[in-house]
Design brief:
330 residues; alpha/beta; TIM Barrel; ten-stranded parallel beta sheet; two-stranded antiparallel ribbon; 14 helices; oxidoreductase activity, acting on paired donors, with incorporation or reduction of molecular oxygen; Lucif-like_OxRdtase_MSMEG_2256
Length: 330
Amino acid sequence: MRIDVRVRNALEVIGEDAHVAEELGADGILNAEIEEDPFPGLALAAARTDRVGLGPAVAVAFARTPMTVAYPAYHLQRFSKGRFILGLGSQIRAHVERRYGMPWGHPAARMKEFVSALRAIWHTWDTGESLDFRGEFYQHTLMAPMMSPTRNPYGPPKVFLAGVGPRMLQVAGEVADGLFPHAFTTERYLREVVVPAVRAGQEAAGRPADAVEIAVSTLIATDDAEFEASRAQIAFYASTLAYRPVLELHGWGALQDELHPLSKQGRWDEMTALVPDEVVRTMSVVGSTAEVAKGLRSRFDGLADRLNFYIPGDVPPPTRYADLIAELHA
């Protein structure tokens, strides 16, 4: 199980964070699209590292087009000498339509087509063949030689998709190289829903059983403050209707019925208090550093190909996780 470390996305610090994470023994570094575009910082991270994989977990696909994603991903794959991992997520309708001003509809089918379009564009750049991708949501039929990037000799970047619901999980199995299950998950949901859906997608597409890497992200808490931070984060996620399947599997659907109306009213403090300890402990790995390392292995060895962990709030420097990385590699 490879260990990925989240790094701060600010241009002023991401290069140093990536370098330190690599020195600490991380196998990969991840940033995220929250308040900053993820792609510029990854160029700085690639310049300061030699070994680790690197990529966004995740960039918002539907805020862009396949062509506007294909360019930075291709450049970063070439610049990092084949270490780039393109993580893509759909986001939810409100953000896509109201924050990004982009169309929404049929997210699973759109994502499948998005990845197929990316691969068609990269194939054109690699081979010089004409670009002729015609789908339901995207059409890419023009690529002049002067607009084609310098050829990337490392092959196309790996594409990982974020997914929660069964249909998006199946799409990951059909077309992706990896899956970032949402951090709002549990070991049981991974075993009973996520992995079977991905495997079903692989089988439907005629792909081998190991075609898709599972890159798990999970909350951790090593003290009371971090435990409460996890509770607050879980309350936020649990109020989102798209994540209800995780709650339903555990019989916690009524929790969302309480949280969602409060979220619409911005009553965040009241929401946090409604999340029981049982839910926090099921969705987070709790204890001392050694206990957290043991818990991570117990839950995810044999289930996850890659693992990253985090404490809600501002992303800390990688040194915050130095002892945990050492424990996991021991």
